[in-house]
Amino acid sequence: MQIGRAVPGRGQNVDSKRRYLLVSPCRDEARFIRYTLDSVAAQSVTPALWVVVDDGSTDETPAILETYARRLPWLRVVRRADRGRRSVGPGVIEAFYAGLDAVGLDGFDYLCKLDMDLDLPTRYFELLMERMEADPRLGTTSGKPWFERPTDGSLVPEVCGDEMSVGMTKFYRTACFREIGGFVRQVMWDGIDCHRARMLGWRAESVDLVPLRFLHLRPQGASQKGIWTGRVRAGFGQYFMGTSPLYYLASAAYRLFEHPAVLGSAAMLWGYGSSALRRAPRYDLPGFRGFLRAYQRDCLVRGKRAATRRLDARQEAAWRAAHPGAGSAGP
Fold first, then answer.
1. What is the CA radius of gyration of the chain?
2. Could you tell me if 217 and 118 are in contact, meaning their C-beta atoms sit under 8 angstroms apart?
3. What is the pTM of this model?
4. CA 164: distance to chain centroid?
5. Phi-psi region for residue 47, left (φ > 0), alpha (ψ -120 to 50) or beta?
6. How confident is the model at residue 12 (pLDDT cuts 50, 70, 90)?
7. Burial label, 62 (beta-carbon count in 10 A; 0-12, 13-18, 19+)
8. In whole angstroms, how far apart are CA 243 and each of 117, 250, 273, 299, 329?
9. Which of 41, 249, 298, 299 has its CA 20 to 30 A from that of 199?
C-alpha cells in the first residue's frame, strides 16, 4: 500500500453546504507540522477556517505557522502561554477549546479536531463529507491511521476499532458535536464522545478505505514519556470512562502479543487496577456507564462488529425521535 504525500495549493472551497472548521492543538511539532499544513492546503475541498492553537511551543513551530498563515487565508493561529510541558488528555482538550471558543460553531456544517502530526490524502475531507451526506445518522467519522515501521519503513495499520472515529482526526457533524456536549476534558475523551453519540442514536465509525488512509507520523500510544506511561494512562482512561473490569481484562489479553509484548498489556491493567484501588474519579453522566457496559457485554458475546450493528439498529428510534422528518438513516 502507498500513501501519497499531498502537493500544496490545489484545493478550493466552493460549496457553502460543505463548510468545515478544523481546530488543531499543537505543541513543539516542528518535526511534523509541515506535512500536515501541506496536506490540508492540498485538499480537494479546503476548510472554511482552520484554527491552529500553539500551546506554548518552544521550538520552530510558531515561525512555521507564521509563514503558512501569510499564504493560507483560511488559517488562523491562536497562541497560548507555555505551561512548561506537553500535556495529553485534558491539556489537549483545553487547547482545543481555546481555539473553538475563539470562533464558535455557528456557520460551520462540520467540525474536525485535527492533530498536527498527520499526512492526509488529498480527498480526505471531501470523502468524509460525502459519507455524512449519504447517511444523516453518521455523527462522527474518520479514516484509518497507518505508520512507518522504524525497522524497515514499511507501512503498518494502527490498532483502532471500526466503531470509533480516531482521536487524531475526529470529523463531526456540527449537530452531533453540540448534542453530545462536546469533549470531556479528561483522558478517554476520544472514547466517551463516540459512546455518547451512539447513546443518542448517532452512528460513529472509522473506515479502512484506501483513499482515507493517512500517515500518522507519531504512532498512537507512543507517549512522550514512553510506551509504558502511555499504556498506563490508557488504563486509567478506561477506568475513568466506566469500562467493566471483565471487558478490559479481555482487551488486555487480546493485545497480549502486540508490541511491546506482555509489557503493554501489563501496563494497561496496572493503569486500570491502580485507578480502581485509589478510587479515582469517574465520568458520571447519568445512564452512561450502564449503557457502555451493556454494549461491552454484548461485544464479548457476539463480537464487536455484530454488537455495534445491533446497538446502532436499536438506537435508531432515539435518533429519529430527536430528528423528526430526517431522511434515510443509513445502514
1. 19
2. yes
3. 0.90
4. 8
5. beta
6. low
7. middle
8. 29, 11, 12, 12, 28
9. 249
Digit-coded pLDDT (tens) for 187-239? 999 999 999 999 999 999 999 999 999 999 986 554 445 788 989 999 999 99
Q: How many CA atoms lie within 13 A of 71 on its CB side?
A: 12
Q: What separation in angstroms does the CA of 230 have from each of 165, 225, 226?
A: 20, 7, 6
Distance CA 318, CA 315 (A): 5
- For 204, the grid coordinates are 460513529
What's the full length of the chain, in residues?
Answer: 331
Closest by CA position to 234, among listed 220, 214, 215: 220
100 and 158 Cβ atoms separated by less than 8 Å: no
For residue 294, what are the contacts with CB-CB under 8 A and spacing of at least 6? none
Q: Which residues of 159-189 are buried (b: 16+ CB within 10 A; e: fewer)?
A: ebeebbbbbbbbbbbbbbbebbebbbebbbb
Q: Which residue type occupies 143? A: G
